[in-house]
Amino acid sequence: MTDSESTGPATGPTARPSSGRRALEPGIQRDFSQTMSYGGYLRLDLLLAAQQPLSDPPQHDEMLFIIQHQTSELWLKLLVHELRSARDLVAADDLSPALKRMARVKHIQRVLTDQWSVLATLTPSEYAEIRPFLASSSGFQSAQYREVEFLLGNKDRDMVQVFKHDPDAQSALSALLAEPSLYDEFLRYLHRHGYAVPAEMVERDWSVPHSLSPEVVDVFAGVYADPAQHWIVYETCEELVDMEDNFQQWRFRHLQVVQRTIGGRVGTGGSSGVSFLRRALDITFFPELFEVRSRIGA
Ligand code: HEM
């Protein structure tokens, strides 16, 4: 047993305090009448006033429901910020910092996926008490979720129509619809750097989702056949695959939580519910990066 593990009275420089109270150091700021405080910087007055349960009589679990959605929206905001930047860096031929952005994106995605376990504590009976107060609102109407999808390449003009009631969201989404996605910019990067990406992949109507190109599969087959020769491109391919993998895991956990909460019932947004969500699992952002895998080692 070392000294620090000893159960006897503590002595010396690593001694533990004998009382439970920690005295405030003299240098610690206590007066924020003239200087920036924590709550002031973070606008906690706004943030913490935004949880406004509607249930009447009040339902204990509505706070969980609201905070789970609001925290998801905050993380989605950061995802949009990082993905936009990653895309713009790829467009500027700056792959190394773009990879740094993608690494952060992957961590955010993991937080978003892990946090489903908190909402999974909501039982069907508890949700049923809240559901009438949600009316027709649904995560399906999350503008930031669509922005993330558009940035990754799952473009859908019909989704823009859902935001007629919110002109700011609608114009942000319309703008992203018309711009290249992160993957489009990666294909353009490859084209600029001498890879045989077809010309119609680098100038096209960006509002239409990218569809599988056999020529692009050939390009990636060459990269995966000799990773050392194409290291930064190879690394970017794998970062993209990780991001899609993480996105699918979020979709799947959402599906599972929905299934255990509402079973086969329709959604508040009007869809068939679980079966509608299950169809999203077939959507791929980067088809060639998955197709190329059947060629490796063949
Ligand atoms: C118990 C909680 C939840 C239930 C029962 C639920 C249910 C559903 C259902 C049934 C849909 C399909 C559209 C509809 O008819 O409403 C949907 C879509 C969606 N929900 Fe949830 N949801 C829950 C929590 C969440 C949370 C916490 C988020 C986080 C932002 C979220 C985000 C989304 C998104 C982004 C979609 C669109 C998915 C797509 O288009 O494939 N949901 N949800």
From TrEMBL:
InterPro entries attached to this UniProt entry: Trp/Indoleamine_2_3_dOase-like, Trp_2_3_dOase
Reactions this protein catalyses: L-tryptophan + O2 = N-formyl-L-kynurenine
EC number per UniProt: 1.13.11.11
Gene3D superfamilies linked to this entry: 1.20.58.480
Region called Disordered, residue ranges: 1-29
Pfam families: Trp_dioxygenase
Cofactor note: Binds 1 heme group per subunit.
Binding site for substrate: 65-69, 127, 131, 268
Binding site for heme: 254
Alphabetical keyword list: Dioxygenase, Heme, Iron, Metal-binding, Oxidoreductase, Tryptophan catabolism
Pathway: Amino-acid degradation; L-tryptophan degradation via kynurenine pathway; L-kynurenine from L-tryptophan: step 1/2
Cofactor(s) required, per the database record: heme
Similarity field: Belongs to the tryptophan 2,3-dioxygenase family.
Database matches in HAMAP family: T23O
Function: Heme-dependent dioxygenase that catalyzes the oxidative cleavage of the L-tryptophan (L-Trp) pyrrole ring and converts L-tryptophan to N-formyl-L-kynurenine. Catalyzes the oxidative cleavage of the indole moiety.
Subunit-structure text: Homotetramer.
Name of the protein in its database record: Tryptophan 2,3-dioxygenase
Gene designation: kynA
